Amino acid sequence: MAGSAFRKPGVEITPLSRETLQDRVYRHVTELILDGSIVPGEMVTVQSLADAFGVSPMPVREALRRLTAANALMVVSGRSIGIPALSRARLIDLRNVRYEIEAIAAAWAAERMDDRGIALLRQHLDALEQANAAGDVKSYLRANYAFHFSIYRAAGSENMLNIIENLWLQISPYFNMLHDSGNYSTANEHHQEMFAALRDRNAEAVRAAVRADIDAAFDVLVGLLG
């Protein structure tokens, strides 16, 4: 019988519920947005995501409904979704909120991050440098997400992490547009400052470095919007 190989004496395996499947699909789509895999102007179909995840279209539609409600995606047609257009007013609002929330999270992380967290951050920083040197945008964006969220998770607040994730769902797809400006190199300078501040447990320094990173990206994006 299929699945019998997974049965062990004394271990009861509960079939995956529909709700759990929907949550898993939601998490997968969320990660595609956060690491820059869905690019502004690109349309993604419900069926293509369902095929990629090996599920029916129903949990994909539910995940997209939740992400549309969070302003992370928009319906382009009945079967396709894409990244919403970024207006100047929305960009400014996102910058202002990120400027406060992410700086607070980083300052909290400076007080809580242990040596293992610092070592992991060093690995993400190395990946950022390598991706930038190679001109590999996708790898850079994945490493950028991993670097920042290693910091924000270390803050120790699930509520704050959820707020930051919602902000990144709305802004991170546009990080694809920063490469040609040289922003990735500028961002890596700020990343080095964040790393040094966290290593030294300097909350004020990491707060300043996070804000400088946010401002540098904002300056490029607001210029592109005209």
TrEMBL record:
Highest taxon of source: Bacteria
Pfam families reported in the protein's UniProt record: FCD, GntR
Keywords from the named record: DNA-binding, Transcription, Transcription regulation
Molecular function GO terms recorded: DNA binding; DNA-binding transcription factor activity
Sequence ranges assigned to domain HTH gntR-type in this UniProt record: 19-86
UniProt-listed SMART domains: FCD, HTH_GNTR
Record bears the keyword Transcription regulation: yes
Protein name: GntR family transcriptional regulator
Species whose genome carries this gene: Mesorhizobium sanjuanii
Organism lineage string: Bacteria, Pseudomonadati, Pseudomonadota, Alphaproteobacteria, Hyphomicrobiales
